[in-house]
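Blinded run. Sample ID left blank on purpose so nobody reads anything into the name before looking at the predicted structure. Input follows.
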Amino acid sequence: MPSRDLLVRRVDNLKHLVAQASSPATEWIDGASRVAKSGYLQSALLVAVSIWAATSAIRQTQTSTVRPSSKWSRIRLPYEISSQISRTAALVFIIIAACQTGGQWLNVAMIGLAFVLGLLRLANDPRWRHSSLHQVNTLLAGSFLLLSTAEILPMIQLSSDHAINKSLLGTVVGLAIANAVALITPREWVPPDVTSVHFRLTPSIEPAPEETCSWFNYFIWYEWLTPTIWKGARKPIEMADLPGLPWYDEPLYLLSEMNTARHNHRKTFRALISFQGRELITMAMWVASSYALELVAPFGMYHLLDYLSAPDRALLHPAVWLFLMFAGPLGRSITFQGYIFRSTRLIVRIKSAMTQELYHRAMTSMELEEDVVNAIVSKDGKTPQVQQSTSNGRLANLMASDIDAITNARDTVAITCGVPVGMTLSLIGLYQVVGWASLVGICFMVLAIPLPAWISQRMASSQRKVKVAQDSRISLISEYLGSIKAIKYFAWEDAMIKRISEARRREQKDLWHISILVAFMGSVGDLIPLIALLAIFTLYAGVLKKPLTAPIAFTTLTLVMTMRRNIMMFSYLSRNITSAIISFERLDRFFENTTPLTHYPTGPLSIKHATFRRNKRATFLLRDISLDFVEGGLNVVTGQSGSGKTTLLLAILGETLLEDGSVTRPEDIAFASQTAWLQSESIRDNILFHSPFEQSRYDRVIEACCLEIDFSELPQGDRTEVGENGATLSAGGQRSRVALARALYSKASVLLLDDIFAALDTKTAASLWKLCFCSDMLKGRTTVLVTQMPWVSAQADLAITLENGGIKTTEQHLGVVRKPVTSEEEIGLIENGNADSGINGTEPGKIDVKSPVLKAKQDEITNEMKASGASARLMFFKYMLHFGGPAYALFALLTIVLSNAALIATSFWLSIWVNAYDRQEAVNITFYLGIYALFTLGSAIIDCLGFLTFANGQWIAARNLHKQLINAVMNVSLSWWKDVPVGRVVNRFSRDMNSLDSDLGRMLQYFLGMAVKIFFRIGAISSILPIFMLPGLVTCFIGVLCGEMYTRTAVMVKRLVSSSQSPVFSQFSDSLMGLAVIRARSNMPVVFGDKLAERLRLFSRATEANYNCNRWVSVRIDFITALVTLCAGIIAVSKAGTLPAGLVGFSLLNAAGLSETILGLVRAMNELEVELQSFHRVQEYVQLVPEEKTDDVHDASSSPDLTAIEAKDWPQTGSIEFRNVTIRYDLDGPDILKDVNLKFQAGERVAVVGRTGSGKSTLVLSMLHFTNIVSGTILYDGIDITLIPRKKLRQAITIIPQEAVLFHGTVGSNLDPSGDIPSERLEDAISACGNIASFNFRDAAETNRAVDTGNGTTVVLPGIDDGPTETTPLLLSTNGTTNGIQPVIPTNTTDQPKPSAISSGLSLSTPVLPNGSNFSHGQRQVLSLCRALVRKSRLMLLDEATASMDYETDQGIQAVLRKEMDRGREGDQSRRTLVTIAHRLRTIVDYDKVVVMGGGRVLEVGRPKELYKGRGTFYDMVRFSGEGEDLVMLMEE
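Blinded prediction complete.
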């Protein structure tokens, strides 16, 4: 019997060998070997390379020889020697083989040609070496592949008796070594043409590491990033530690390429295709290869499991399938990372190029009209009904969001090129495995596509709502925080918090809808492939009655999951694609609607019969303007507010539309705007404005602008950073004088100065007049000065008076000699008297402007890095406590564990089902299928529950943290805001809160899921293959180690990305605010464009490093886990016949998934730490100390004096008293006010005067308790203000600040944001101000009209349909609608504004655009006065509130104040005190008391007439004002 069994087995093996010899599985091997030996391919390759080499040689003779310009272009001798030796060895071996076999002469020719070209490339020309090296490598790679196919490939057959010749083996080894050396040899660098204008900012360009690294490192290993990773793992890294930017990613080069593409294609989409078409094709090739190689591993696993099921029937060696299981994932990783590498580089290039393109287009175009901008920003071209902002602000947001939306759709390449390849191959493979049953499952998945697509559309719709709500909230926050001073002045913190909270509530409502949809999408995404898989298994095992073997079950599972991922990509990316399409449309609308600046012929400044319009829809015109400005003289423009003075200056600059007439002007003009625009740089940099530094010229300009004393008071002199919008300088005098100094320092032949005297005290104004206008400072320069100073016109060469958009009068004073407003002797005395007017009492004669004591200046990226803070790795525990407590956090963790357990149980049950067939049992398909379905459904339900648990916890945490954050920043002291840019705080509410809303909870769940899954996978593999425990743990250790190195570096690199991005956004937004100033100067837009390019270079450098670090860790972890899969396969092969194939398949499935799990864990660690920085930054601000806690807490009931403040009628009087008060802004800073003793009686009108910096504003701020009282006491209504809660104190005092602040909304909401004041009182205040000149000034042709708002109500408007103009104070929008503001004046009700309000066009429902941009400066101040009147405060403070108004408006405001004061004096219980800071003495000459400040001390106190007669400082100020005689007459009256 035994001999008979042996005979049967031998017969079976013989039959198997006969079948193997004719099997299709082996026929292709023999066919490939025959083709490789035929010589056809060798001949074709020889001819092609020969032609290539000849063409290169001919081209080389026609061009000049380029010598190596740097060490990077020279030959690397060690690598070159190794390459020559290996090529020589291969040539020798192939010659020997040819002599022995007589059939290898074509191979000899190929290798010989490679050897010869390798020697010829040693010629000293980088371009020749570069070309010939490619030819050599092509020959070597082709020879190696052909010889391996011919001689090595047949040996993989188990029945093969093929033996390779030793000489041929030596040839193959030599070629392998030569190819390996070629792969690892650093590339020789061919430098670009550095003389090109694209490299003008980097004339000494050096190669980036990626330009000189080897092909192996460039395409596979990314070794050139290792120094950065290694350094980042040990210590903090800076920008200089990152790899350099390659020349082909230089911003200016990219801008040039983008401009070329834009010239050829008007549409943005086509322009981008032209711009980066080659890169897109490369991406398509990489991603298609990646999706094809993704199926190699399932193919290998299928055959390996088939081998393990029946080893004796195998045709090929199992090492083939092990190699495929190793090489497949590795090849897929290399190609996919290659795709990501190029797609991320595409992101950087598009962001760099398009940011510059938008910036330069904005620089060369007029400001867009409101309706055009609204159409651009909207999704469908309609005006969005959302919170409005300035057009410049929206364009800056357009630049950020739309470019991001376009780059976020880059994976469209993967959908169009990669997914079809992967789907096609998966379909073929699935059909080969299970036959027609696969078609049913595939049809189900295809038919189910509309469901996730529908969910995705609903998500996109909800996302749009969230975006609108988020824009509304951020607009409110930006507006309120930008005006935090005004909010605190009026104690409106709670009212503004309430508005923001309401916007936040709407936003979070939509966010929760999105969370529900995401959970539904996840469940659908999980169930669709699982149901398809169940259908396939049911049909295959139940209908076809075929056994569900391990190869079939686990291969089908892998292929279905692969198809599921590919199908879901359509759904997940559909939102990004939709957003990109919308962004393309919006960008196209922007480029189509921009209007180029008006360019005038070069010549002397002259206007002939010109008509100007601010924009196409503007109603206000400058009509029939003809002016011949005095060349080299002073031309003064005056007129009432709204008469067209500023428009005239803008018309000269080309910022308006020229409808008729002609203009000539010099090319270079310096412009100082009415509201000073300063860059966030040092004072010196602002003054130089990118001009060369000339010490003598600079010193003279500083002296002329009276800035020496100001520099002495600043900690770093003229190197002091001015901050955002000049925040560190005084709102009036210092900012305007720095802007004037910038204009004077320039060498422009024309100066346009818009109301530069408005914010200056009389002494400073007179000194500036003397030193600038009465000297040769302006000699030879044509100066156009807009001013309200009445005495200036008489000393002008040409005096122009405007009225209602036309020229009222022109007067020439040719030959006039400009004189100081007082005698030379008096000026000298007064200037000497200013020596004690500095805060610190510094003497001007001792100021050293040139060499102030400076701290080390830190660059803006370093500052942003410090502001980003750091976060602890395990901070997520603290974050989870915000979900709802420890119990909620533990429940969330439990859902993670159960979810992973269910997933492992599902695949384990599948292995049990498979093993039942192997045991040849009667398989109950219903039982096994039912349990499998139960596990599948349970896993989906637990996944959904876990997602909702984390989503709800994230929602609760974000809600509470936002509430705490807005309360913290609104209630912190103003001194905190001094060093913190508003943009940084807004960033907490936008980017950081967006992370808390959307990303942090999701990333935390993903991180915990990967951490738990890795333990389940290793446990699952080790339970079947215990020997796998060691390589599994080693793999996890190495993977986590690489991940830790990567995470430490990536976190810092991401901070560098954010920090380098902030200056780019800052420059974009800052430049848009100062466009008129920048564009006035010749060639200045180019300078600013270069500055943006410099900043973009740093941003691009950091961004590329950030993306490439991800590639570095991905390929390493993929390689390690591919080795793990290989180890698992080897162990399984060694256990063949001893382990059930089902359990082996279960182990291999988890081993194959280990790569994805470890890599997912590493990425999750990195992303989680990055997202936790947002939580840390928010927490940092949440913990800010409230302003009230900086004082001792007093119980009002404990003191009889304090009980009075609880009464409704407190304060009863407006008396205020200073008793020996010394004030500091910072407790450790200098004394600002010293030993001040003052007493203002109830009902008095008190004026505070003095030089800029003398302490006037500090005196007023001290009454509101914004300063630190070092010693002494301030009493308000007899009570120490330090005992009064600050909000209570500020609610009892009203201030009209120098810069009137209006918020977006209506006039009513601006007068009373809290809504507590009766509307009758608000209307009374409007009526009181209705006749002030600014509101009463109208064109006679304009009449009121009613406008339908679209929902049954109308508003009464002036007869104007345009945005803000010089003559129209009250406007809604560019198209006459409310632009999203609710209409508020029903015409069919009795709730009509009073006649005086209607007559001025003003009512409670009049819309107010952001920043009050539809009101002139004077009109905003009048509304600020209305705001003060409605509060009925006993103490009213005016801080230079009328400085920039014309005299008529000023008189109107003073008349209203006198009337209000007189009304208060009718009864003792309502007496009101008025304290006014004024530079214009005419304003306060009839006040009851004048306080003269100087050097932080009170110099004089008394009635104006008495102080004048005393011939002290006030007397000097009167004499110095330029209108002394008029003031004396008024005092006598």
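Unblinding after everyone has recorded impressions. The chain has a mean pLDDT of 80.
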